[in-house]
Amino acid sequence: MPMVFTSATLYISPNKYSQIPKIMKKIVFAATFFLINSLLVLGNEIPDVNIRIANYKDDKVSALSYTFDDGMKEHYTLAVPQLEKYGFRGTFWIIGSTINEDSQHITDTTHMTWEELRIMAEKGHEIASHTWSHQNLVKITREEAVKEIEKNDSIILEKVGLIPISLCYPYNAKNDEIIALASKNRVGTRLFEFAIGTESTIESLNKKLKEIIDNREWAVAMIHGINYGYDAFPDPNVLWNNFEKVKALDNQIWVGTFSQVASYIAERDNIQLNTVKEQGKVTVTPQLSLDKNLFKEPLTAIIETTGVQSFEIQQGGKKITPKVLSDKVIFDFDPFGGDIQITYK
């Protein structure tokens, strides 16, 4: 039978106390102090507050990036409006030598203009590299491969105003040497993909979405032509239906650009969280050795706890508004932003 302490248990009458030897009085006093303090501590335990990084943004189950190869005109006129209809942003792999200078100087009606690419970038779409002239990098010399990569980076910087931080290999051809060359100063390169195009059906794409969720994975969709060109759709509504279906799964699938998801995963896998817990307060110090000029994606933290009614979170003196759910609290933070102060009650 467990021992139960009450006020009667700890009470000693004055008559009895005066009869206790001096040494025993000290022992009784110490024991009484210890028992009372223990009862107070047990009544005010520090809640078990555990913090971890979510696998994907907003603690989604999986992630999906829509990527479009070759800078086709239809990507701008058809795909971009459909993506934006659902709040999505895509990644567009550009072959610099095929892009038209502007609407007054069209040399290839099947490809976009630099002006259109600038507009897309301003709207949050990712303009990324598919090399200067789409040569198989494995079949040319190292010097030629470097030129293909660097020339395309330079023209995109000049015309769009940004250096692409991801790259897609022409013909998906790559080896260790080419991957090392292409990965310099980037958050990632496209090493895996699944095609959406000529052979896709609504049923096959629905099946793929189920696999993505079941496997809790990041999937990278590779799309070329819409109505014309390589791997074009017999019916583009297959793609638009997929966008609608993914939007309906918004609570499970994070749709991000290639660089956004690649950055998140690299940060997630390399960050260390040093945590100091006190009564009513937790201080978290994130440590990340990646290049902060390249890796800029906020991370989602998850607080798992019981018995806490409210949270206040700050980083760098700025308040962070958390999302309080039934079984956890989530919030986004800057992995390079310094200490995170979490107070709770």
From TrEMBL:
The keyword Transmembrane helix is assigned to this record: no
Keyword Signal annotated: yes
Biological process per Gene Ontology, one example term: carbohydrate metabolic process
GO molecular function annotation: hydrolase activity, acting on carbon-nitrogen (but not peptide) bonds
Compartments where located: Secreted
Organism domain of life: Bacteria
Pfam family, one: Polysacc_deac_1
Record's signal peptide: none
Location (main, coarse): secreted
Occurrences of domain NodB homology (ranges): 62-284
InterPro entries noted in UniProt: Glyco_hydro/deAcase_b/a-brl, NODB_dom, Polysacch_Deacetylase
GO cellular component term, pick one: extracellular region
Keywords: Signal
Protein's name according to its UniProt entry: Peptidoglycan/xylan/chitin deacetylase, PgdA/CDA1 family
Protein's organism: Dysgonomonas macrotermitis
